[in-house]
Amino acid sequence: MKVSSMFVLAAVAAVGFDASVFAQDATPIAPPADTTATSTQATPPPPDWQLSYNFGAQSDYMFRGISQTDGRPSGFAGADLIYKNQFYVGTWTSNVNFTPSGDASTKEEVDLYGGWRPTIANINFDLGYIYYGYIDQPSNIREAYSEVYLKGTHAFGALTLGGSAYYSPNFPGTTKQAAYYEANASYAINPTWAISGALGRQFESNAIVTPNGGSADFNYSTWNAGVAYTINDHMSLDVRYWDTDQLSAGDPYHGRLVASIKATF
To answer: Which residues contact 193 (CB under 8 A, 6 or more apart)?
Structure first.
């Protein structure tokens, strides 16, 4: 996942998929009060280890408001191994096209990640690490880098509010250090339809090389809003509009409407 601009060759990334929702332990069904039965019925707890995977396609691979496929479609796939509904490791991949930033070689992104998802005071947290790798990246352009992240969400009935923070100590290009902060919200209209949106801010230190040979920061804001439709227990559709406040930085920063379909098992 990469940010391209007319000022600097740089790359950014984030987890291109949502955290999985896992089965919860069911409450045992008590026997009728007017009987002497001693047995109860209970739903078996989920296994300690669970494997989930996903795949899909989208009309454009967007990340933090920036096209990662030069406005072209992408196909993606991922898998997650979860232990006790909290600890996880996983991988995710998608085709990419960084030609607008001068990299015509890199064609595939492969991410590796792991973390911990505890629930504290009714807030669902996600603390983790992710490595963004790229196949056939040029020898003179370092695309690969890593981030640590912290996310949190809390549900208020049908409304869910969330926030996240990412930090990279080895961001590509001259940046080295970068951070991203986001606030998001979703509302379940019914079991089939939901609307959601997010507002984020990307910070990249020393990302721009000035005419006198110095450097300057490159920061921008991004937002998205869309609607999702659940086809069945495994498949969903999403139509979303993305935009940034850096339209002068080139076409990848311009607003666009993106449609996607995703299957999860």
So the answer is: 227, 228, 229, 230
Identify which of 212, 159, 231 has the alpha carbon closest to the alpha carbon of residue 189: 159
Alpha carbon distance 150, 137 (integer Å): 28
Beta bridge partners, 199, equal: 183, 223
Q: Report the CATH number that the domain containing residue 67 is assigned in CATH.
A: 2.40.160.40
Instruction: Determine, yes or no, domain membership for 244.
Output: yes
Calculate the CA 62 to chain-centre distance.
Answer: 10
Report which of 11, 252, 12 is spatially closest to residue 138, judged by C-alpha positions.
11
Predicted TM-score of the model (pTM): 0.82
34 half-sphere exposure, CB direction, 13 A CA radius: 0
Of 72, 55, 63, residue with least CA distance to 11: 63
Q: Tell me how many domains the chain contains.
A: 1
How is residue 23 written in tokens?
A: 């089965």
Structural domain that includes position 249: 49-264
pLDDT digits over 114-167, tens only?
Answer: 999 999 999 999 999 999 999 999 888 889 999 999 999 999 999 999 999 999
Task: Write the CA distances from 66 to 83, 98, 110, integer angstroms.
Answer: 33, 11, 18
φ/ψ of residue 45, rounded to 5:
-70, 155
